[in-house]
Amino acid sequence: MKNSFFYQNFYFSEYQWYLAIYAIIVILSCAFITIVFKSFYFRRIVQMTKCFFDLKSGKSKNSISNFSAVMTSVATKVGTGNIIGIGYGIFIGGPGIMFWIWIFGIFLVGIAIAEAVLAQIYKQKDVEEKGMYVGGVSYYITNGLSKKFYFLAIIYAIISIFTKGFFIVTANINSIVYTSLFTISGENANLSDFFAPTPWIICLIIGLFIGFFILLKGVKGIINFSSKLAPIFIILYLIFALVIFFSYIQYFPDFFKIVFSSAFNSNGIIKGPLAASVFLIIIIGAQRSIFSNEAGQGSGTHAAASAKIDHPLKQGLAQGFGVLFDTLIFCSLSGFIFTIGLIVNYNGDLSQFANKFSDDTKIISNNSNFAGHTSEYFTWLTLQELFSWQIWGMNVGGIIISLFILYFAINCTLGGILIAEFNVLFLTKNLKNEALRYKIVILYRVIAMLACIFSPIIGRIGSSIFDMSDILVSISFMLNIFIIFLLLRPLLASIKDFLIQLKKNEYNIKKEFNFEPSKLNININYEKNQWKK
Q1: 251, 399, 209, 411: which is closest to 336 by C-alpha?
Q2: Which residue, among 378, 382, 376, has the nearest Cα to 341 in the 3D structure?
Q3: Which of 485, 248, 503, 208 is nearest to 386 (CA)?
Q4: pLDDT in tens, 248-270
Q5: How far apart are CA 353 and CA 342, in angstroms?
Q6: What is the pTM of this model?
Q7: Considering just the CA atoms, what is the radius of gyration of the chain in Å?
Q8: Which of 92, 198, 320, 353 is an S-S bond match for 113, by CB 3.0 to 4.6 Å?
Q9: Given this model, what pLDDT does residue 5 score?
């Protein structure tokens, strides 16, 4: 494999071939869901927007509001993958990946709606979380399908705990560490010294903060924290991105020119036959879209289930709009920043852009000091080009982006811990000894804190552990899609019921809706389901 044309020219490792197959499955799944749902959500974009910004609906003592659930879900998505991940995608595939990020983001909306609706239908209250609603993929497998599928719920829960509650946690903390090192020392950053104190100090401070937070506040505390701070930091990042946008607005036509031209023709950015180059660009775009908005992975289902709402489709539409916001606005602005950085770096000479860009990516990739951290380096390098101002010898752009990554990475880490804890609750829900169950939850929280503190060790193991994480995430996606297909009947029944009521309510989403599963022939394998009248 390592002697193959693709490996030498496209930086494709063995695991990425697996992700290529994963991307193809995503394409087919998106097409199927879009056809089956008849794209009803695109005709209801006004209602989607209103559901997303619904600040009051569903808030009560033992549940969270619709808006809090949506913002928590968005907060777990909007993270390092939307900044560093987009930069890395452009670094290895060129600006053309942005076009495919948009395409996949649009068609993933249907899957995001489907999983959120199922999470709402099959949620249940949990004693350990003081009567708060819990749910997610494992719950709608258990409460929506027969017992012969229960083993799939266990598999999904275990995968989620390892990926979201361990691998993603350490990846986020490492992103903070190495972005900070580049900001402080630039190209002179020494990433190879395992005993350097700075990374350990950063990880210790962040680990203790996260540890005390989750031990004292728990799941509901994470949701409240994310829902209140996420809008503020998202708005601040958008302002930051828009400042860059208007500062370099003269390059705006060039941005679209290079994105669209590079989407169907690598223009020499990737060396090789045209068909093979374009295939790689599509695959990278698909991967970055999937890993940035996380639709289909089941990540947003846990927050979606926690809201008290009068019809599951309201939460589904809100989650769908969240995917559109994440992809078309947040990722687009990040893509603009990195692409404009490249254009400015090459003096706007698009005719020479491709060859220089291709050569530079190989030089950076072959630098042993940057091994495994090229994405953080490329992020720093881009901001270095766009901001010439210095404070205390550090680039202003690097400082600003480091602060954003600090917040978003911590928020994503808390979101990953929330997802993992929901799955720990699922795996222990049949334990009659509540004291033992509580101890298991506390044990997980302590392990999560230690994972943050000892993130440098995980980072030293190499990229293979994160490659495995990506594979596990892709498995969880395919498992979730399989379950969604099995539960299409209740999904379609819920959609039809919602659209009928929406028409009766004169398309006013704020009017009261009514959801009765029994009248729709939806069976819920849980005696105390919240929809019983």
Answers
A1: 251
A2: 382
A3: 248
A4: 888 888 888 888 888 887 654 55
A5: 8
A6: 0.82
A7: 23
A8: 320
A9: 34
CA 246 vs CA 258, 337, 385, 481: distances in Å = 18, 11, 16, 41
The strand pairing partners of 132, in sequence order, are: 126
Coil, strand or helix at 390: strand
Spatial separation of the C-alpha atoms in residues 496 and 504, rounded to whole Å: 13
Q: For 58-83, how does the pLDDT look when each residue is reduced to its tens digit (9 = 90+)?
A: 555 556 666 677 777 776 666 677 77
CB contact burial 11-34 (16+ within 10 A = b; e otherwise): bbeebbeebbebbeebeebbebbb
Q: Using CA atoms, how far apart are residues 139 and 147, in angstroms rounded to an integer?
A: 12
How far does the chain reach from its first CA to its final CA, in angstroms?
A: 60
Structure tokens at 524: 């819920």
Using CB atoms within 10 Å of the CB of residue 4, give its burial: 0 to 12 exposed, 13 to 18 middle, 19+ buried: exposed
| 65 vs 57: CA distance, rounded Å | 6
Q: What is the 3-state secondary structure (H, E, C) of 226-278?
A: HHHHHHHHHHHHHHHHHHHHHHCHHHHHHHHHHHHHHHHCCCCCCCCCHHHHH
As a whole number of angstroms, the distance between CA 347 and CA 353 comes to: 9
